[in-house]
Amino acid sequence: MRRRQSAFTLIELLIVVAIIGILAAIAVPNFMNARTRANLAQVYGNFGSLRTAIGLYILDNKEAPVDMGTETADASTYRQLTTPVAYVSGVDIARDIFPPKNQDRMYYDYGGRIKKNENDRGEPGPRAAAYDQAGVRCVIVSSGPDGDTDFGWTDAVVPLMRQDPAIRHVFYNASNGLNSSGDIIGTNTTVFQN
User: Fold this and answer.
1) Would you place residue 19 in the very low, low, confident or very high pLDDT band (cuts 50, 70, 90)?
2) What pLDDT, on the 0 to 100 scale, is given for residue 60?
3) What is the average pLDDT across 123-137?
4) CB-based contacts of 170: which residues, under 8 Å, 6+ apart?
5) Can you give the pTM of this predicted structure?
6) Exposure check for the chain: N or C terminus, fewer CB within 10 A?
């Protein structure tokens, strides 16, 4: 009598490969999105730390840090939070995790009092009245996971701060997909998301 060899048939192998393929198709996107979710958590944490630091700066100086306008390379706006009093331990907390595409900006965009020259401490910029009306002193912006800056500094700031439905597209919302459009926008009082 002949003994049957215990081996996999071609059909059994194909079924196993199909099952592995289905499991991989389900698992891989979740693993890929885990990094985006971790980066989002870091941005929200950084915004919280910056909000606290700017709030303490405002308490000490009666005004928000001056917008030096040099976030592109040296983060001098955020360096005001490190010296002479260290409100944050370093400017790396202001490094944008989602740098904008086709731009060389490395740090979160900042809008506040405008610096006129090297010796000037800054004066209210053109949006100062709108900021005051919205109850904020400054705005911090990350490009969000899509790397596209949707927040236009020329847009009406007050309706934006109040999340006017007509311009909510500038706010990032993870429920629209982790890589959806919209920026992560924070102020010295809160972090906005739609």
Assistant:
1) very high
2) 92
3) 70
4) 150, 151, 152, 155, 160, 182, 183, 185
5) 0.75
6) N
